[in-house]
Design a protein that fits this description.
Helix content: 40-55%
Shape: globular
CATH class of the largest domain: Alpha Beta
CATH superfamily of the largest domain: NAD(P)-binding Rossmann-like Domain
Oligomer: single chain
Number of helices: 12
Radius of gyration: 19 Å
CATH architecture of the largest domain: 3-Layer(aba) Sandwich
CATH topology of the largest domain: Rossmann fold
Distance between the termini: 37 Å
Structural class: alpha/beta
Number of domains: 2
């Protein structure tokens, strides 16, 4: 029995679909904060269990009879270490045999603000004694598609990465890797650095957007503080805007590139071309 936490989220839903392509629905449990939001998953024959990272009792109940657990990192930055620790504690009590965690690329050495909570979570998991696998996911191509309409309309992709390169992959690629690790053997103790096949600068990314949309789009580089202020002016919370600007500074340092082709190897195919993800978003 495999439990996926955060199953109604964007990555979680794709992991459920990837698992369904490999094993029967009867072997999958979807942990969701709201059972109502899991209706589409339930329609596929997957059992739903209420699981809230901030409610230890719900975690204990959800983990009953579970052999393997995919802990998808929470989205409440600043609270994730405590939340993840609650899940790990419950997994130990439930005698879970394998815990897979979605971390961040180069978590053990990354200077990104986002890496701190992932690094702390990895340490908690290692100390738990539960056999583990860390999926150190790199950047998602979809990080750029949410604002694609505005980017095309303005003719500018904004950022603070200078000429640093990023190697994004589609969210479905990372989901496929998780499904492989959960349904095959030989992954315990592994720390997989996962990224897309192609590394490119944001100037080159802007050119990809232009080619797919047929509209002129260029990259406009800003100082990190100015980029954060601009994102905040667009309506993003100030703290999150600073985190995104910090990620661009990480791109400038080369922290969101990996050349090991581990993601490609795990999923048994090339990672999804950036143009394909952009076209689907358009």
């Amino acid at each position: 029995m495999i439990l996926v936490t955060g199953a109604s989220g964007q990555l979680g839903q794709l992991v459920i679909d990837a698992l369904l392509a490999r094993i029967p629905a009867s072997q999958i449990v979807a942990g969701v904060r709201s059972l109502e939001k899991g209706a589409a998953i339930a329609a596929k024959g997957v059992a739903l269990r209420a699981l809230d990272y901030s409610d230890p009792a719900s975690i204990d109940a959800a983990l009953k009879g579970v052999d393997k657990l995919l802990l998808i990192s929470g989205n409440e930055v600043g609270q994730r270490v405590q939340q993840h620790a609650a899940v790990v504690d419950a997994a130990r009590r439930a005698a879970v045999k394998h815990l897979v965690y979605t971390s961040i690329l180069k978590a053990d050495r990354s200077k990104l603000i986002l890496a701190g909570e992932h690094r702390a979570t990895e340490e908690i998991i290692e100390a738990s004694g539960i056999p583990f696998t860390f999926l150190r996911n790199g950047w998602y191509t979809e990080n750029y598609t949410g604002s694609l309409g505005a980017t095309i309309a303005s003719g500018a992709l904004l950022g603070a990465a200078n000429e640093g390169a990023v190697a994004p992959a589609a969210r479905a690629d990372y989901a496929a890797a998780a499904a492989v690790v959960l349904t095959t053997e030989g992954h315990a103790g592994k720390r997989y650095e996962l990224a897309g096949d192609r590394a490119l600068t944001l100037s080159e990314f802007a050119a990809e957007i232009a080619a797919v949309s047929g509209k002129p789009v260029v990259y406009r580089n800003l100082a990190a503080a100015d980029y954060a202020a601009t994102l905040h002016s667009f309506g993003l919370p100030e703290g999150f805007a600073k985190v995104l600007a910090d990620c661009d500074e990480g791109i400038a340092r080369g922290e969101l590139v990996d050349t090991s082709a581990t993601l490609r190897t795990l999923i048994g195919r090339p990672t999804t071309p950036i143009a394909t993800t952009l076209a689907a978003a358009l």
